[in-house]
Amino acid sequence: MITKNKNNKKNKIKFLYISVLILIVFLAVLFCSINLYVISSSLPYIIDIDDIDSINPHQSVMALGAKVWRSGSLSYILRDRVDYAIKLYDSGKAEKILFSGDHGKEEYDEVNAMMDYAISKNVPKKDIFLDHAGFSTYESMYRAKEVFKCDDIIVITQGFHIYRSIYIARNLGLNAIGVKANQTNYVARIDIKNNIREFFARIKDFIYIEFTNPDPTYLGEVIPIFGEAYITHDK
Questions:
Q1: Mean pLDDT, residues 68-93
Q2: What is the pTM (predicted TM-score) of this model?
Q3: Which of 156, 206, 216, 218 supports an S-S bond with 133, CB 3.0-4.6 Å?
Q4: Where are the domains of the chain?
């Protein structure tokens, strides 16, 4: 009787282990499939910067926010994004620039830091729009469509981030193409960290796009990208 109980307990434990293993394998396959879907659906819209037509300029180029240091200087990742946006603007491939990032707290301001850098590179302030409530990639794209009324847009970000950005943008109704801002050789551990984070972020935004469609934190009044940029400036 004791032996039988022991065997039953072992069988239950074995069944539990097998069930957990099956669940892990299922989730791994599911998560990888979602990532592959997001990447593959975006690939046709990722363009080399030199292949973008300058005869028919795009309505705007959007650089997505990233880390700003306490000094107000841009992190390498953010500087590369802004540099590419400036290059597209200066070459006549985009009529306006939209900087979208986190300015949820007075002491942390990505978008004004981006604008200050662009102005230092001789970009006229009148052509720079600021989205102070771009708290996530999803929110930046949602607001680009609904607040700034963007249609024809070039999105600038790094390679690890570009696929999700374009996937979100196009599924929200933006006619978006993406350019990889891969200019600096980033430290390997940072690159690995970003790719791991991005793996799970694609899953989150896949759920947003395909199932939940949440509103952004803020919407507010409409500020068309073809209108007056100064309305978005708070400095």
A1: 96
A2: 0.94
A3: 218
A4: 42-232
Architecture of the domain spanning 42-232: 3-Layer(aba) Sandwich (3.40)
Give the torsion sign (CA, 37, 39, 43, 46): positive
**What digits encode the pLDDT tens for the residues 23-75?**
999 999 999 999 999 999 999 999 999 999 888 999 999 999 999 999 999 99
| CA dihedral for 130, 109, 80, 100, sign (positive or negative) | negative
Residue type, 175: N
DSSP letter string, the chain: -HHHHHHHHHHHHHHHHHHHHHHHHHHHHHHHHHHHHHHHHHGGGB--GGGS-SSS-EEEEEEEP--B-TTSPBPHHHHHHHHHHHHHHHTTSEEEEEEE-B--BTTB-HHHHHHHHHHHTT--GGGEEEETB--SHHHHHHHHHHTS---EEEEEE-HHHHHHHHHHHHHTT-EEEEEE---S---HHHHHHHHHHHHHHHHHHHHIIIII-PPPS---S---TTS-GGGG---
Give CA angle at 151 (148, 157), nearest 5°: 80
